[in-house]
Amino acid sequence: IKEEIEEKIEREVDKVEISQLESKVEEEKETKQLEKLEIEENKEIIEKEKTGVTEVKEPKKSIELGLSKPIPERKSKKVDEKTKRTRIGKIGLTNGNGFINGTKLSLRVGLTNGNGFINGNGYTNGSKAGVHVKRKNLINDNLRKGIVVFVLLFLIILPFAYINISNLIKKEPKIDGDFSDWADIEKYADSKSDCVTDPDVNIVEYASMDTKEGVNYYVRVDGLGQYSKNKEGASMFALLIDNEEGGYTAYGINADHRVVVTTYDRGYSASFESYNKERPGDWNGWVYRGIVPVRISGSSIEFSVSYSLVKPNLDSRSVIVSVDSENNTDVTDYVFCPGKSKRLLRLEQSALLESISLGENLVMKISISSNTGGSISSITFSILGNASYTDVDKVIVYSENGQKLGEGVTSNGCVKVEFPHPIEFGNKMIKNNLLVKAQFIGLNGGTFGLKIISVDNVISDGLVTLVEVKSEYNWLGYVGVPPSRIVIDGAFEDWSNVRKYTDEVGDNANSCDIKEYAAHNDSERISFYVDTDGSLLGGASIPIRVSRPTILPTGSIPSVPQPATGLDVCYVFIDTDCNANTGYRIDGSIVGAELVIAVYGKDERIVNSECLRYNRSFGTSWDWSFLSKAESAIGSGKLEMQIEYPASRMNALIVIVGWNGEREDMSDSILTNYADRKRFYESKSEEIKNEDMQYFGDSSDSRAGSNGWTQWTQSGLLGDSVYEIVQCNIDHNESNEFVLISSSGYVGMVTKGGNDRMALPAVWEVYLGSGYGGYQGVCVGDSDGDGKEEVICADWDRNVSVFEYLGSGEVSSSNPSTTPTWKRDITLDNLDDPAAVAYGDQDNDGKGEIIVGFGYDVRYGLGIYERTGDNAYSLVYAHRISGTYVTRAVAVSNNADGDSYREIAWGGTDGVIHINESNGDNQYVSRYTYTVGNFINGMCFIDIDRDGDDELFTACGNSNLYCTYSTGSDTYATSIIYTAKNALTKVKALALGATSADGDSQREVFVSRYTAGSGQDKKAEVIMVERTGTDWTSASFTPTIIYTADTQGQTVYAICPFYYNFTTFDGDLYVDIIIGHAYFSSTVSEIYVIECSVAVPEFSDFLLILICVPAVIVFVRFSKCKV
């Protein structure tokens, strides 16, 4: 319409300009004509005075109005007196020579059909645009032209102005139940998908209109409204108004007034209330002030709030909330201004931060939507965390397709990002997604994150609704390396190396479902972690059960309602004495809690956190008193808590309770720790006795052996990555042992506990206590030749340590020694950090050697320490190569190529198979190298073809299993015999003695692999590779999967086919393979045992040796083997 009006104005202005030019050309002519006319008029006046006839000079008026020159008319020279006195007759205004049908302004020379505006010779259809007769007493040209333009514009705009004004002057809707008067009122659409559980409270549109007396409101829901409710049910619609400072905090506003409309099957009621600010956070802090008019018809509601109750305020903010008796809730998508038309904008922000490195780091996503459209020229972010601002170069905002939109730098704890080209956003709830990145130029520690906290300056002419959307990522990340201990700061990466336990998904129908949980403690404090689906500490902004109005008896005084804060609580019940018969007894568990950590929150924000002490010696009554504050932090559905409490042993149970007192979820299992104060373990509460919960415990799950192998029902639980497992019987009794190490610096020894059982907890254990990589390698042997075996460990803190058996007695917590009998920092010998270790006498001089693979940042290679006395060793050989590689695997053989010299194989991150051979006392020479091109993770020797020469098997990161075999003295060849789905981690073989692990005549090696792919392929496996052919190609080797992990993402990183001293681990005739899970990507670290279902065959190789020994020895050995 505007464009059409402008075009008409332009056309008319052009006509006026043309007329002006024509007027100037004829100006002289018109002047002469005017003089002539004046002479003629003077003559006529004289004649009329003589005859006594008066004439109405209407043509002169036409000239003054800017008409074209008048047409002279001939008049009767005689008119009787009666005619002169009337205005109706022949020469009157009506039918004579007057305005309407005469010869004046109307038909002949008048405004309508004469020489006037419309159809005469005037402006519209005539041939002239202006006045062609100029008189001295006429108004000047400029004013005349202005009047013409004004009249023309008025005539053009008049129809449209009428339409627009009529639209503005709308009829105010009345609160009368007739909703037709809302038809022309602008409404805000609301999402239909945010409360599908109850259409009767699912708001689909709403509106408000300012009137002389107050503000009228309109709401429509998706269902049938109050008439669909049953006799017990009800719905409540609450208008929350933020008109002053302070108030009840909910849905992004601080409401100081509210209107409550309660609907039910037979009626409805409405009230107006103001908030008592002396009861902060209490929904029951509202004070009744009166009623408001309300009408309901089907799914529509209208009501009014007068200005006598709420003063007009252009900065007022409101939301409308609907909730039913089952707490199904909907809230308007936008905060709006009552009765005012303002731009409405919705910002949804979600975290995308994982870890922080140099360069650009993805921090968060912003989704913008609007019901009105518009643009944003800048956004200001608040900086979270305590990282140095100098580490952050700038913050950059990109569009979803990668286009850079703007950037900003840090200033006073904020970053303002300005957009050179404002971001345009549309209406109809179409979201515009923005990605926010932070560019780092330094990594000096601390935590960092970004979040939009204030929306005051996002747009200047509207209201912004700010919503935080949960994601799997964190709002805070560590700048550089996470701290070595658990810090409660809302950045959860410091929990990445702590074992987490998986909770059953969907085991409750409430709003918060525990996914996983963990605990950790040191000598001073104890920490807990929980991750959830749903709303963690979401609470309720309307924390009541909606019910039908109650009519009080006449004269009764209503009671003051108890506070309703709507807070959810996360409890951690701590059993400090591991005795279920003391402390607070929790239903459904065997925990008797002396302490509880309580964290209260609403809207996924923490309100308070504390540690309470139980006041009774035993009971189920809730009787607690304050002990201390608790540290806590929340973010993206995760919660971490910590108290200062030295915990030598304890059990713990996590319980989440909703605002209404109902249990949301409880951890499936009990967390328990052991005396070293470094690890936590999980036990199924319905299966575990108190004394079994300290260290290892039973668990039953769907992990399983296959293809002739079955899994023990028992499993051991370790709070860290199991890196290596070796077999032994260090005290030479009836009970075998195995030793395991972890990457956090733990070494432990577990003995058998009967048929198909381990004796748990670990009988002996040592914690490294320092360093930054834990133990990397372990072996067992009598390295110093004193008849007492030692546990030899290589740690990533430069040391090789020897823990020696005391020489008598069974293995116990102090036997072997827990203090190293020999410890060497090998960097003092110009070696680098040790990563692998083996034991042997490779130069065959009768003196045991400790063979160490090393490497890190300067050099890598092989070092050999030979005993020089009891518990004394010295470096006798070193193969050093410059580079930053690491020797991660070492294996020894007594005969690999048929000569009389022994071999050492080693390899690592350089991707090269090395074979060194002894050629004299403390003399070694490199005999063979073969490049595989990827990390070497495991090596072992076994004479798989029984020709007297050992073959070397190498597990590689490129998924290949290599076999290196001798082709003559000091010569070798290598081939690929098996390719797995993903990188192989370890390769092991049975010790010499058994013909086969699975009862046939073929020898095997066992390999483990990382996770890969998706679905079943992402579950780690143990594969038995058996030689079934005669050559060294893959066709001669048959792989069989004998174990599959239960959970995707688990990795098997340690395997030990147990056959030691001609016996299996538990002493029966079925070979056992001990499996250790590594701790990656929040998966578990556990010890499992699978057992072959076929008995080990007769030990033919062993019997040939026994022929040469005394008969009594033969009897004993046969008795042990149950042959």
What would your notes on this structure say?
The protein is mostly beta strands and 1123 residues long. The chain has five domains: 1-42; 180-331, Immunoglobulin-like, CATH 2.60.40; 344-479, Immunoglobulin-like (Sandwich); 499-546 and 569-676, no CATH class; 721-1092, YVTN repeat-like/Quinoprotein amine dehydrogenase (Methylamine Dehydrogenase, Chain H, 7 Propeller). The chain contains seven helices and 70 strands. Helix 1 (2-25) packs antiparallel against helix 5 (141-168).
Overall CATH architecture of the largest domain: 7 Propeller
User: Structural class, judged by helices and strands?
Assistant: mainly beta
Number of strands: 70
Which CATH class of the largest domain applies here? Answer: Mainly Beta
Task: Describe this structure in a few short sentences.
The chain has 1123 residues and is mainly β. The protein has seven helices and 70 strands.
List the helices and strands and how they pair.
Elements: H1 2-25, H2 27-51, H3 58-64, H4 81-85, H5 141-168, E1 188-189, E2 203-210, E3 214-221, E4 235-242, E5 248-250, E6 253-255, E7 257-264, E8 267-275, E9 286-290, E10 294-297, E11 300-306, E12 317-324, E13 329-331, E14 343-351, E15 359-370, E16 374-384, E17 392-399, E18 404-408, E19 410-411, E20 414-425, E21 432-440, E22 447-451, E23 462-468, E24 477-478, E25 501-502, E26 512-521, E27 525-534, E28 568-575, E29 583-585, E30 592-593, E31 595-602, E32 605-614, E33 618-619, E34 624-629, E35 631-635, E36 638-644, E37 651-657, E38 663-666, E39 669-673, E40 680-684, E41 704-705, E42 709-711, E43 716-717, E44 722-728, E45 737-742, E46 746-754, E47 757-767, E48 775-781, E49 790-795, E50 799-804, E51 822-825, E52 834-840, E53 849-855, E54 859-869, E55 872-882, E56 887-893, E57 903-908, E58 912-920, E59 923-931, E60 936-942, E61 951-956, E62 960-968, E63 971-979, E64 984-989, E65 1004-1009, E66 1021-1027, E67 1037-1044, E68 1051-1058, E69 1072-1078, E70 1086-1092, H6 1100-1106, H7 1111-1120
Parallel strand pairs: 14-23, 29-33
Antiparallel strand pairs: 1-2, 2-3, 3-11, 4-7, 4-12, 5-6, 7-8, 8-9, 10-11, 12-13, 14-15, 15-21, 16-20, 16-22, 17-18, 17-21, 19-20, 22-24, 25-26, 26-27, 27-36, 28-31, 28-37, 29-30, 31-32, 32-34, 35-36, 37-38, 37-39, 39-40, 41-67, 42-70, 43-70, 44-45, 45-46, 46-47, 48-49, 49-50, 50-51, 52-53, ...
Helix pairs in contact: 1-5
